[in-house]
Amino acid sequence: MTDLMDYDDVIAAFDPALGLEVHVELNTASKMFCGCDNTPGGAPNTKVCPVCLGLPGSLPVVNGKAVESAIRIGLALNCSIAPWGRFSRKNYFYPDMTKNFQTSQYDEPICVDGHVDVEVDGETHRIEIERVHMEEDAGKLTHAGLTGRIHDADYSLVDYNRAGTPLMEIVTRPILGLGEKTPAVAKAYMAHLRELMLALRVSDARMEAGNMRCDANVSLAPRGATELGTRTETKNVNSLRSIEAALTYEIRRQGAILSDGGRVHQETRHWHEEGYTSPGRSKEQAEDYRYFPEPDLVPVAPSAEWVEELRGTLPEPPAARRARLQEAWEFTDLEMRDVNGTAGSIDLIDATVAAGASPASARKWWLGELARRANEAEVELAELGVSPAQVAEVQALVDAGTVNDKLARQVFDGLLAGEGTASEVVEKRGLAVVSDDGALGAAVDAVVAANPDVADKIRDGKVQAAGALIGQVMKQMQGKADAARVRELILEKLT
Amino acid sequence: MAADILTATAEELGRRIAARELTALKVTEAFLAQIERVDADVHAFLHVDAEGARAQAAAVDARLDAGEELGPLAGVPVAVKDLFCQAGVPTTAASKILEGWRPPYSSTVVQRLLDAGLVVLGKTNLDEFAMGSSTETSAYSTTRNPWDLDRIPGGSGGGSAAALAAFEAPLAIGTDTGGSIRQPGAVTGTVGVKPTYGGASRYGVIAMASSLDQPGPCARTVLDAALLHEVIAGHDPLDSTSIDAPVPPVVDAARSGDITGLRIGVVKELGGEGYEPGVELRFREAVAALEAAGAEVVEVSCPHFTYALGAYYLIMPSEVSSNMARYDAMRYGLRSGDDGTRSTEEVMNHTRAEGLGAEVKRRIIIGTYALSSGYYDAYYGSAQKVRTLIARDFDAAFDQVDVLVSPATPTTAFLVGEKLDDPLAMYKSDLCTIPSNMAGNAAGSFPCGTAPEDGMPVGLQVMAPPQADDRVYRVGAALERALAAPDAGVLTDRIASRWVEA
Question: HSE on the CB side for A324, CA within 13 Å?
Fold first, then answer.
């Protein structure tokens, strides 16, 4: 069992240093170096051609749209755009790589020296971006065996549909001085990048699908020390929660080792959703990738005019957008803070409002019922499986009196179970409230007859006593009664 | 009748096919029969696609009979170095590791040949993955020089050059990374041109060293080479390094051959020690003939050419080490040792050990070393600097003259086996040709007679600035006309009686 030190004790003794490398898969129509379909999925090895299969004689050609996306990402991250840069070959053998080298920018990245500001608990932290570079993704290996790892697999299957998908790697400079907030800032940074990618429309940015993956580097140095400690790199962390949890775990693990007088091994580690990291290959025997400039590609040389043209296509910065929407939606600071504090909710509310719901109702659903469900399922709000259009439709049914709030929750059950549109769920589950006077009248008559003393109170003018009768009618109608109409019927009958 | 077909120029065959005096099928049959008759001695071909060639020829005949206007080489057969992918046709790069592989796609060059109505007879032999200067490193056979079967036909494109010299094809396609078109051309008395880098598409050409490889035409006459050049050259969106500009007017230049007032520079560094006297003699005579034809001749110094061979043998293997990595037994080609006891890595190692030859392995090892961390700057980095200096030498020279000339090779064809165990001696075969690969300019080799010592052909190399490929042909055509008997005209005609049955 790995020793872990109490988090607060680690922070009291050590300063964590953080470094994040985020891979973003672009959603361009075609792949990085060939014309193959870049949409995810499909039967294995159907979205391939001589180029992404690395067949003898094939040659890459850079996808101009991917370069465009890279420049827009760089500009959105306040980077300088390099006027000239070459791709390189990163040489290593692995069966998921068709050429046994990855074509990647190495020492001449397209975007350098940027920054973003992220907010945690009302405090702004500046994250310096060292570089953003372009590369290609590899294929996907499936190892048939007990652990799913290559070393004890009986056989392995490989799918090259993903081979050649355009990837952007966004690398931060070391982030220092965050103390206890280190994991929270990392999470906020990732959420910020995700928001940015969606706003730029350059990636589907679905973390659970691997569209965005984070390699989280962290090291500890004794408080006040000037040199950084030995770092570990936890690879392919693919949810916001996991980033925070993995970093917290690594900080506690390294803290225990260092406090015990041990030394941290520089290595890559794997994150397990059960809540721990385990060692991968050691980086101390550094692999030699024998990088050299890719001779099959001409350098990428974006003109200053093109870069400026692309700058003009940047979306509104997220912070400005938040301020604008708060005003438009007439939310109080407190209401808006909840929106800002829930990853992805601003986009979901915005889209729900665009689909016809009122801002207040959109906020109520996303931050109430749906946030609760996301929390239970341990997924991000946007990953829950309910779309803004569906929420707007549910609210329209509420507004029309077809369902009440309580029934609406059951409509969401149906939506999540894939039972069709909201109206279809209402139909199939028989959820529509009853406002038919015949059925309601009979129930009211029965409840009045069963509660003569309450009825008398109402007759005497104590109208507020009607609440007790309404509740019983609702119960009798299994919640599917139009409460307002029930009240009217009771008062009509007794006053 | 068949003899006339075999010895005719491609230009003449194209004309007679277009005029319907000959059918493409008849011409194709004549060459298939010649291959059948002589290739057991020459070993120029690795694969003869008789069925495919007949079908292509018949299709061209049908189109011509229907009155369609095709290009000047429609119906003319061509032999293609087995480094070019052709859909459905075995493509091996003369390596065991690709034995039996049939590419699912065609290279741009082959596609352009087929689109222009040329008939692909088959795939010619080469050094394994084009790594060699004698065609002896082929995993399948050793091609012989039709001038003397005990001698090598040059390399790596010895198969294409020998096929021309033995009248097995009127045209052939090669690739030139350090001289693999020009050196075989020189030692077989044929014409071989390396276009400007990026002049003809590399798409579908199995890579040796990507920044140096260049496909180009091989023929027995200058005009034939130019006509073939025009078919295969031009921008290809599938090759990012291909030049997006009109093809230089090579055919006009080959037809004209007028070099009046052309300034020709003789490269001082490409001659002297290590050069065979007969080679230098014929070279000097050829230069004198060009001067007599109206050119101005001066001597030019290119001081860094001395370092070209050394730098080449760092850059080329570096790229080779990376380009060869894909042959790992996982997806296509040979897989050996996969008996259920070996891991993926072990199967990769086993297959590469068994499937690749000694020269390929030597270059992979040298290149892997040169790119290694800690050695990169000293080897690959320095070699790139030399490359820049060579390009500057060319720039400075082309400020003074229109073209440069040198012998194409230091020696005539050597004996089979003579240098196989001495890589350094072998590498020196490319001493004169490598600078143009390093700088990417256009260069060609043209026959200039035979050496008195051994009666073997000598080639003159013409080097022109990038995208001035037409100057190469202009000088080549002038030389073809200016030489005095017995070297005048088409040099290979001197061995026609040996190879073609009357």
Answer: 7
Contact A270, A278 (CB under 8 A): yes
The one-letter code for the residue type at B114 is L
Tens digit of each residue's pLDDT (9 = 90 or more) over B205-256: 999 999 999 999 999 999 999 999 999 999 999 999 999 999 999 999 999 9
Q: Where in chain A is the domain with CATH 1.10.10?
A: 437-494
Peptide bond into B486 cis (omega under 30): yes
Contact A95 B376 (CB under 8 A): no
Identify whether the C-beta of residue A472 lies closer than 8 Å to the C-beta of residue A490.
Answer: no
Write b or e for each residue in A121-155: b if 16 or more Cβ atoms lie within 10 A of its Cβ, otherwise e.
eeeebebebbbbbbbbbbbeeebeeeeeebeebee
- The span from the CA of A38 to the CA of A46, in Å, is 11
Residue type at A204 in one-letter notation: D
Average pLDDT over residues A419-428: 86
Instruction: Look up residue B94 and give its amino acid.
Output: A
> Inter-chain contact B371–A292, Cβ cutoff 8 Å?
yes
Residue type for position B275: Y
Question: Phi and psi at residue A242, in whole multiples of 5°?
Answer: -65, -35
Q: How far apart are CA B34 and CA B77, in angstroms?
A: 12
Rounded distance, CA B209 to CA B240, Å?
A: 15
Q: What is the pLDDT of residues A98-153, one digit of tens each?
A: 999 999 999 999 999 999 999 898 899 999 999 999 999 999 999 887 776 666 77
Q: Which amino acid is at B343?
A: S
Smallest Cα distance from B32 to chain A, Å: 27
Contact A61 B348 (CB under 8 A): no
More reliable by pLDDT, A69 or A374: A69
Task: Specify the amino acid at residue B346.
Answer: E
Strand B191-194 relative to strand B442-450, pairing: antiparallel
**Residue B370 near residue B376, CB atoms below 8 Å:** yes
Q: Which residues pair with B172 in a beta bridge?
A: B79, B218
| The CATH number fitting domain A437-494, selected from 2.60.40, 1.10.10, 1.10.443, 3.40.350 | 1.10.10
Q: For residues B213 and B205, is the Cβ–Cβ distance under 8 A?
A: yes
What is the rounded distance in angstroms from the CA atom of residue A457 to the CA atom of residue A462? 6
Nearest CB partner across the interface for B240, out of A55, A61, A286: A61
Q: Is B389 exposed, middle or buried (0-12, 13-18, 19+ CB in 10 A)?
A: middle
What is the distance in angstroms between the Cα of B489 and the nearest Cα belonging to chain A?
Answer: 37
**Rounded to whole angstroms, how far apart are CA atoms A67 and A79?**
14
Chain center to CA of A314 = 21
Chain A and chain B share a number of CB contacts under 8 A equal to 100
DSSP state of B221: S
* Residue A318: predicted pLDDT: 75
Q: Is B122 helix (H, G, I), strand (E, B) or coil?
A: strand
Q: Give the tens place of pLDDT for each residue, A335-350.
A: 998 887 787 789 899 9
Tokens of A42: 């499909």
Residues of B in contact with A288 (CB under 8 A): 372-373
Query: What three-state secondary structure class fits A154?
Result: coil
Q: Which residues of A touch B (CB under 8 A)?
A: 50, 53-62, 89, 91, 93, 95, 98-101, 150, 156, 158, 286, 288, 290-292, 295-298
pTM, two decimal places:
0.87
Catalytic sites of B, residue numbers: 81, 156, 180
Which amino acid, B272?
A: G
Element (H, E) at A124: strand A123-136
**Hey, what domains does chain B have and what are their CATH numbers?**
2-305+387-492 (3.90.1300.10)
CB-nearest to A61 from B237, B326, B376 is B237
Q: Tokens at residue A444, please?
A: 């009211």
Residue A120 tokens read as 């945690």
Identify the helix (H) or strand (E) that includes residue B318: helix B308-323
